[in-house]
């Protein structure tokens, strides 16, 4: 990459949540191996992000690469309308076998946000098919489910970055975000507001959607599993569908295969994405029960109304198969448990720092909540200068490293965070 390319980037290319007039700096990454990103000047950065929860095996994994090369040589894409191919069948079989029992009808699509759109559409079509249309989805404040319209409409209505589209979005109902933390004791009475809400509004509600246990973009909050059990129970009682958005949490990130496993609940509709392909390609899956799929299919419409051009892209399915096979053979649980221990031990002392409000760790997720917002361009620059790739947001510096990270590399990430706290210019003064 030449300087020219960087100028072109600045002038012509949008980056996520970035201004075109005052763009945040971008760093030229020319390759990535294992847990390292390699900059064009040869510097190597330890990756603390897994490219937003996705690259769980690290980059350029030789086995996934090999499977993908083999698939390219056969075909990288073919339409899914009227055609089926081996990578899709293998992937759906793997998902049906490894996801909670009964979730056996799989819809493959392009991205996490689209998986959420599909889940919402399934719920709406299900109620229509039952001759009892329901038009509202119940969601959690501080929730986040993606950037497309349906997904935005079930993300936090006030504080999310989507409030600017509010007048154009369908109106949904929102429950207050769970207050009882993951590690706290559940108290009698915690369930009152949830139960009351369901009993008052259930007749209009087609489905409830939640990020199980971890509210990510809405604040990296870890809430008590009892909320999930309660939600499952109330959904059963009032006949409401339960959609679990495990796009960020799925495939072991929280220390369980799914975050729902902390509460032993099975949703009616499950959304997967991000780490599904080991972060190699964009792909998502929405799974549901046969009786839901059959109700939708036996309606007047006769089918589920969705069918993206790149549905079940064979190359992405091949990557997902390779990733799932690695997870199967390579005790992901032990890696995540070790990362969890190192994060807990390494981050705990930071709680005494005046800049730190809270430290929390769950599985391979470590969060340092700061009392001030970070100056993103400054702190990112500081991290790069110190050999690590960490991208905080608002007042949250967090780590979601690849499962293959070494102890030494993880300690470097933790030390970098510790040192960053003593640089006043990394934070916006309040
Ligand atoms: N749901 C959750 C919980 C997410 O974290 C995200 C992505 N950050 C999405 C949905 C949307 O996924 P994608 O960015 O692949 O559209």
TrEMBL record:
What HAMAP family does the annotation carry? BioA (MF_00834)
Gene Ontology molecular function terms on file: adenosylmethionine-8-amino-7-oxononanoate transaminase activity; pyridoxal phosphate binding
Give the protein's function.
Answer: Catalyzes the transfer of the alpha-amino group from S-adenosyl-L-methionine (SAM) to 7-keto-8-aminopelargonic acid (KAPA) to form 7,8-diaminopelargonic acid (DAPA). It is the only aminotransferase known to utilize SAM as an amino donor.
Q: Does the keyword Ribonucleoprotein apply?
A: no
What's this protein's name?
Adenosylmethionine-8-amino-7-oxononanoate aminotransferase
Q: Which Pfam families did the record assign?
A: Aminotran_3 (PF00202)
Q: Name one GO cellular component term.
A: cytoplasm
């Amino acid at each position: 990459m030449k300087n020219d390319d960087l100028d072109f980037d600045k002038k012509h290319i949008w980056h996520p949540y970035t201004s075109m007039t005052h763009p945040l700096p971008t760093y030229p990454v020319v390759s990535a191996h294992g847990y390292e990103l390699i900059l064009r000047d040869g510097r190597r950065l330890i990756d603390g992000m897994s490219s937003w929860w996705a690259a769980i095996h690290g980059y350029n994994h030789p086995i996934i690469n090999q499977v993908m090369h083999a698939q390219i040589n056969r075909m990288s894409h073919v339409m899914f309308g009227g055609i089926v191919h081996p990578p899709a069948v293998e992937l759906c079989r793997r998902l049906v076998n490894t996801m909670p029992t009964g979730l056996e009808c799989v819809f493959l699509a392009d991205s996490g946000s689209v998986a959420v759109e599909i889940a919402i559409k399934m719920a709406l079509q299900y109620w229509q098919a039952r001759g009892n249309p329901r038009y509202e989805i119940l969601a959690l404040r501080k929730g986040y489910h993606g950037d497309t319209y349906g997904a935005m409409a079930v993300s936090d209505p006030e504080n999310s970055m989507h409030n600017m589209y509010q007048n154009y979005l369908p109106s949904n109902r929102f429950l207050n975000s769970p207050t009882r933390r993951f590690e706290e004791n559940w108290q009698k009475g915690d369930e009152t507001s949830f139960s009351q809400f369901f009993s008052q509004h259930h007749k209009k509600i087609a489905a409830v959607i939640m990020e199980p246990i971890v509210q990510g973009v809405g604040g990296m909050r870890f809430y008590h599993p009892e909320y999930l059990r309660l939600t499952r129970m109330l959904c059963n009682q009032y006949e409401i569908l339960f959609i679990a958005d495990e796009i960020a949490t799925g495939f072991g990130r929280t220390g369980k295969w799914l975050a729902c496993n902390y509460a032993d609940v099975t949703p009616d509709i499950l959304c997967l994405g991000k780490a599904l392909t080991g972060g190699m390609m964009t792909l998502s899956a929405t799974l549901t029960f046969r009786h839901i799929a059959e109700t939708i299919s036996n309606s007047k419409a006769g089918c589920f109304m969705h069918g993206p051009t790149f549905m079940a892209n064979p190359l992405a399915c091949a990557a997902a198969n390779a990733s799932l096979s690695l997870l199967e053979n390579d005790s992901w649980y032990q890696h995540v448990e070790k990362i969890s221990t190192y994060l807990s031990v390494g981050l705990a002392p930071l709680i005494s720092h005046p800049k730190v409000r809270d430290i929390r760790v769950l599985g391979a997720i470590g969060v340092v909540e700061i009392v001030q917002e970070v100056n993103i361009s400054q702190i990112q620059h500081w991290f790069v200068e110190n050999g690590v790739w960490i991208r905080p947001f608002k007042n949250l510096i967090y780590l979601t490293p690849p499962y293959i990270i070494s102890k030494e590399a993880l300690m470097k990430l933790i030390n970098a965070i510790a040192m960053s706290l003593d640089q006043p210019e990394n934070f916006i003064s309040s």
